[in-house]
Write a structure and sequence with these properties.
Blueprint (H helix, E strand, L loop, with lengths): L11 H7 L6 E2 L2 E2 L1 E2 L10 H13 L9 H21 L6 E4 L2 H13 L7 E5 L8 H4 L7 E5 L1 E2 L4 E2 L1 H7 L4 E7 L11 H10 L3 E5 L11 H4 L3 E5 L9 E5 L1 H6 L23 H21 L6 H27 L5 E4 L13 E6 L4 H10 L2 E2 L1 E3 L4 H6 L8 E5 L6 H15 L1
Parallel strand pairs: 3-15, 5-6, 5-9, 9-10, 10-11
Antiparallel strand pairs: 1-2, 4-12, 7-8, 11-12, 13-14, 14-17, 16-17
Helix pairs in contact: 2-10, 3-10, 10-11, 11-14
Bound molecules: pyridoxal-5'-phosphate (PLP).
Amino acid sequence: MLKTEEQTALDISWVRDQFPSLTQTENGRPAVFLDGPGGTQVPQRVIDAITNYLKQSNANTGGAYASSRRTDAMIAEARSAMADFMGCDSDEIVFGPNMTTLTFALSRAIGRTLGPGNEIVLTHLDHDANVSPWRALEERGVTIRFVDIDESDCTLDMADLARKVTGHTRIVCVGYASNAVGTINNVKQVVRIAHDAGALVFIDAVHYGPHGLIDVRDLGCDFLACSTYKFFGPHMGVLYGKREHLKRLQPYKVRANTDAIPNRWEWGTLNHECIAGITACVEYIADLGRHANPAAVDRRAAIIAAYEAIHAYEHSLLERMIRGLKQIPHLAIYGISDPNRLDQRCPTFAVRIEGHTPLELATKLGDRGFFTWDGNYYALNLTERLNVESTGGFLRIGLVHYNTAEEIDALLAALKEIAA
Ligand SMILES: Cc1ncc(COP(=O)(O)O)c(C=O)c1O
């Protein structure tokens, strides 16, 4: 870990210069991308890596010729980049089309070992991609138990989780952070509770990925999935699995897949051009870290430095947003809004304004150049639990480290005007 004294602040103009799409305008105004939770913008180097792969190395894998060999090498490089990103070894990294598909693949493989009497623990805070793949195992007689939330701040009820995890539990599936209300869960504690009961842990880190460092060894989790398009990369999913589990479980696969890991988990032809973009995306994050702390000795250290800089910068955005949102009449914030607890949330805000549907708000903001989201964003358990599903869900404003204080001030002014 790098020392805090060595840390320098995030260089926002360097950051914004990396992302060509941030200069777009909408109806004559600067476009403000507040839709990061649905997918972030990408730096130029990701676009270049995808284009260059298609120009110079486009081929299938395993062929006895140059562009195929370059493709094999490129995939190995991307795997090593993702291993540095997650804090694990390359053979524990599985690529797939997206997190949902990978989670279904994993649930089907784990499901082959489960039956009546076995239980799976899920939560009301999670995206449906960490719910439906596990609920599908009910057809095998598996029982699903749901952990509730504290409605007042949309945090996970850890006492309820501790009650629901028993000797019957085979796997606990929990999100690292909520894509709707921004809550960061204490996943390390979840791992402890689950492992004490002899259960596995699957973590959905899709929403956490752009905001916080992932360290699977430190967490001790068995599986963790994320999506590179949520952290400045191409539309792809990545699964980490502990080596012993990836070897032990029996995924459904074609005969031509070997039994070696990770190959037995990756079926058919992958999206090579996007995999080329993944290395560039990890390198962008590492360069951000090197920029913040030139003393970072290797790529993992640079990634750690990047997230320290991102965390400090996003904290200031979070404070500004919470302060401003609280001044807008008739606006309700769902999730943690106590300024002393901002470390327990991401800068992702679910709000409602009395007298306006979330769709109306998102449309009016969209016309003014602010790209936000409305609805449930597949966090369906939560919108149902909070009784907002039938009235349009929430307006979601999602900040990442390429957003600025000026963008926040402009958004707050627009919201105030729309709410009046
Ligand atoms: C928290 C969370 N989990 C899972 C997903 C699904 O990811 P993917 O689109 O890669 O399947 C999303 C997508 O929005 C998400 O926000």
